[in-house]
Amino acid sequence: MTATLVTGLVRACDGTPPDGAAVTVAAGAPARIELPPLTTRVEGPSARKPSPRAAAAKPRDAAKPKRAASPAGAPRTGSSARPASRDGKARGARALPPSPAKRLVIPKLTIASPVTLLGLDDRGVLTAPPVDDPKLVGWYGLGPAPGEAGTAVAVGHRDTRTGPAVFLNLSTLKPGDKVDVVREDRRTAVFTVDKVRTFTKEKFPDKQVYGSTGRPELRLLTCGGTFDKKRGYSANVVVFAHLTDVRQV
User: Fold this and answer.
1) How far apart are CA 84 and CA 223, in angstroms?
2) How many CB atoms lie within 10 A of CB 143?
3) Residue of 56, 171, 48 whose CA lies nearest to 120
């Protein structure tokens, strides 16, 4: 049975997106974000053993590899952007040492949200932020930190039973838009969006989304596609971005 949909201009958490895009919110939206299992390991120096801080997010698989040494020469102040290569393509920025994510900012969507730690459930599915705080973004704490070598993963609700949530308009991002992640070490990792894709649950490319590309990257995930009261959303929206700058807070 198809759920009743409410269509219209809906405000983002902290304002209206610049393009004023019309969005569709599902009535009776599910209380969790249904994501495919992390069958591909989220690679990077921080694919680590759970720390005491992350005990509540401990995944079902046992030992994790020991953390690799922090990249040499990581910047302490200012920009870490690398110059363009001979073919004119930007190489991005140097990887940062590990440090927990504290706040996520998307200027285009006027989003500035606190970040909480997430892990995996018993099925190996990435958990979601609590539904009683729809503005909260979750970071997969047993994978790389944002800005660290590897692919960092962050998720947020599109909507909840009480209304719109932080990643409602995530699909409106375009290549070149910025995503800032403020870290505990007072650095801000600046990511540039490469592309935004919507994948059905049946054809979700876990290696493409979660796998390492050889540079610091970020994935933002939320629900997408059509909504059914029994089955939930049919797809996931994924934002692909890479590290292009670092600022000292």
Assistant:
1) 35
2) 26
3) 56
Tens digits of per-residue pLDDT, 157-195? 999 888 899 999 999 999 999 999 999 999 999 999 999
Q: In this predicted structure, what is the pLDDT of residue 158?
A: 93
Q: 3-class secondary structure for 110-164?
A: CEEEEEEEECECCCCCECCCCCCCCCCEEEECCCCCCCCCCEEEEECCCEECCEE
Residue 31: how many CA atoms within 13 Å on its side-chain side? Answer: 4
As a whole number of angstroms, the distance between CA 18 and CA 240 comes to 20
The answer to whether 1 and 229 are in contact (CB under 8 A) is yes
Q: Residue 88 is encoded by which pair of tokens? A: 């004119």
**pTM for this model (two decimals):** 0.68
- For the chain, the average pLDDT equals 72
137-140 and 187-200: which strand pairing? unpaired
> Which among 79, 218, 245, 78 is positioned nearest to 154, based on CA atoms?
218
> Which residue, 157, 190, 165, 155, is CA-closest to 176?
190
| Mean pLDDT calculated for residue range 124-139 | 90
